[in-house]
Amino acid sequence: MRSAAWVLQRRETPLRFHLFCMVHIGSQTFYDEVAARLGDCDVVVAEGFGQSRRRFTRLRLRFYGLTHRAHGSELVYQHIDYASLAVPVLWPDMDPPPPQDAAARTKRPLWSYLLFMGFVLLLPLKALAVLALGGARFLAQSMDLSIDDTTVLSDGDHLSAIVLDDRDDLLVAALTRLHEERAAEPVNVAVVYGAAHMPAVVRHLNSAYGYRPTGGDWLTVHGIKL
């Protein structure tokens, strides 16, 4: 399995966005290669909550860690040591939503939030599936996870808004600030997010500012034949 790494730039300014379309389960070699490239950038925009000890973050790590231990699989949950990069890291997921977005969120039906909580409660059953099938077979039968580990939640407009669209808005806002503040500088900005978030990034940067792909290549996520 491979993952794309793209470079977006526009003619008018030197700032470049390096998009790393992340798969959250892969080989550690893949994550080490991404980390090495991040070290050559000036700013990193990363998915997640940094060093936060939020319970949900810890729960996800414990679950996906089973893919490495189950039946000797080479698969691990995404691990990049951002603190060792000596590069500033921004965490858009931790930013407060704009006032207009916060108001819209209060209008969503209660069932959408209950469905999200149901997914969290079902994680122990998914862990049992990993132990029973082995990491490779589980990945093969759960291809949603090979794109972005939130896409399994994207059934229904309201639920998709909670786990994908809301976070896309925060990410796009962070990239907009970087463009407005540093577009005139020869800065390399790395965007390290799940692949499902990248269409929103490309659409916004292209339509609002004229950024286009100017290069890219493929990285091997893992060598397991599915």
Uncertain residue segments:
141-156
Fraction of residues in helix: 40-55%
How would a textbook summarize the main sheet? 6 strands, mixed
> Which strand order does the major sheet show?
6-4-7-2-1-8
What is the molecular shape? globular
Query: What is the tally of beta strands?
Result: 8
Tell me the number of helical segments per DSSP (H or I, 4 or more residues long).
Answer: 8
Q: Element order, helices and strands?
A: EEEHEHEEHHHHHEHE
N-C termini distance: 9 Å
What's the Cα radius of gyration? 18 Å
Q: Return the average pLDDT rounded to an integer.
A: 77
Strand-residue proportion: 15-25%
What would you call the structural class?
A: alpha/beta
List its traits.
8 helices; six-stranded mixed beta sheet; two-stranded antiparallel ribbon; alpha/beta; 226 residues
3D architecture notes:
The protein has about 230 residues and is of the alpha/beta class. Helices cover about 45% and strands about 20% of the residues. The protein has 8 helices and 8 strands; from the N terminus they run βββαβαββαααααβαβ. It has helices at about 30-40, 55-70, 100-105, 110-120, 125-135, 135-140, 155-180, 200-210, and strands at about 1-10, 15-20, 25, 45, 75, 90, 190-195, 210-220. It has a 6-stranded mixed sheet, with helices on both faces. A hairpin with a 2-residue loop joins strand 1 and strand 2 (about 15-20). Helix 2 runs parallel beside helix 5 (about 125-135), helix 5 (about 125-135) crosses helix 6 and helix 7 (about 155-180) packs across helix 8 (about 200-210). The longest helix has 26 residues, at about 155-180.
